[in-house]
Design brief:
InterPro entries: HAD-like_sf, HAD-SF_hydro_IIA, HAD_sf. The chain is α/β, with parallel strands linked by helices and 330 residues long. The protein is built from eleven helices and 19 strands. The two termini are 41 Å apart. 47% of the residues are buried.
Length: 330
């Protein structure tokens, strides 16, 4: 019986952007990680806030990247939002869609009627990410919500990862309406709400799932809210400085540089690490010295910061520690 991190769980739920791929390119090692889990008999699922692709399209994209996936393994916020609307409104009701064609298709599939103008008298506005979203549809949405339409957001990710760095996400587009309307959406469906995680676990009859993500404010907070252990990988949005400053509801169980951490001992990734020395690093109070694996240093620092030492009081007492602090923006 293996004693690696993944072996302690009966389901691994992956976020996609920043974990498995960046936009449309696989992250190195991701395909191998999923293949190894499947070979070990560990079920996988994919839970994404991205509402610009349908589940079947996501599965096809993953398969094309060398990550075999079935549509029923993919849960996305577009499908979840459409399902919520179908529960609230009669069949055929007009729903103004702000987002990609995938979101319109999900709304249509549950028996509602996608529309695009205030004059269509929509009973609801559903807003998801779409690269073509512009002022005109946002204006129609603002008029509709102000007239009484229910406002549902698929997710509120402020940014989405890309090879060039973080780009505006659906949360940034939601902020446009929030500013214009001076109010919050009536409902946010995706992470950090726990629904995608709990649904994935239920569909797999999982009793001990592990959520894997790159964002503290969505993936990790959603896992904490769902009562699940979580692994933060440092291949996407959230970095070391954000992890050190994370409040309790955004603190993962584990951290690793990438998905290879799934196949190393759990104790090499567990947070926080409370010790004076580990892996070539030494922590004396708030001073870090020595050299070694950056993730080990991060785990040590999480131990002291989460115990109450202010982030601003951390100091670097070796050349390697100085380089780390500079790279991390500390």
């Amino acid at each position: 019986m293996s004693d690696d991190l993944a072996s302690g769980y009966d389901l691994v739920i992956f976020d996609l952007d920043g974990v498995v791929y960046l936009i449309d390119k696989p992250i190195p090692g991701a395909a191998e990680a999923v293949e190894r889990l499947r070979a070990d008999g560990t079920p996988v699922a994919y839970a994404t806030n991205n509402a610009s692709r349908r589940a079947a399209d996501v599965a096809a994209l993953l398969t094309g990247m060398g990550v075999p996936a079935q549509p029923d393994e993919v849960l996305n916020s577009a499908g979840a939002a459409a399902a919520v609307l179908a529960q609230r409104f009669p069949a055929g009701s007009p729903v103004l869609v702000v987002g990609a064609e995938a979101l319109r298709a999900e709304v249509r599939e549950v028996g509602l009627t996608p529309v695009s103008t205030f004059e269509d008298q929509p009973v609801a506005v559903v807003q998801g990410y779409g690269p073509e979203v512009g002022w005109q549809i946002l204006a129609e949405a603002a008029l509709s919500v102000r007239a009484g339409a229910t406002w549902v957001a698929t997710n509120t990710d402020r940014t989405l990862p890309s090879p060039r760095g973080p780009l505006p996400g659906n949360g940034s587009l939601v902020a446009v309406l929030r500013t214009a309307l001076d109010r919050e959406p009536d409902l946010v469906v995706g992470k950090p709400e726990p629904g995608l995680f709990t649904t994935a676990a239920s569909l797999s009859n999982s009793e001990r799932p592990l959520a894997v993500g790159d964002r503290l404010d969505t993936d990790i907070q959603g896992a904490v809210g769902a009562g699940m252990d979580s692994l933060l990988v440092l291949t996407g949005v959230s970095g070391p400085a954000e992890l050190l400053a994370a409040p309790p509801e955004r603190r993962p169980t584990f951290v690793s540089a990438d998905l290879s951490g799934l196949f190393r001992p759990a104790d090499e990734a567990r947070l926080p690490l409370r010790a004076e020395e580990a892996g070539g690093w030494r922590l004396a109070g708030a001073a870090l010295s020595g050299e070694g694996d950056p993730v080990t240093a991060l785990r040590l620092l999480c131990g002291t910061v989460w115990d109450g030492v202010p982030l601003k009081d951390l100091t670097a007492d070796s050349p390697a520690a100085t380089d780390l602090f500079k790279n991390w923006g500390l």
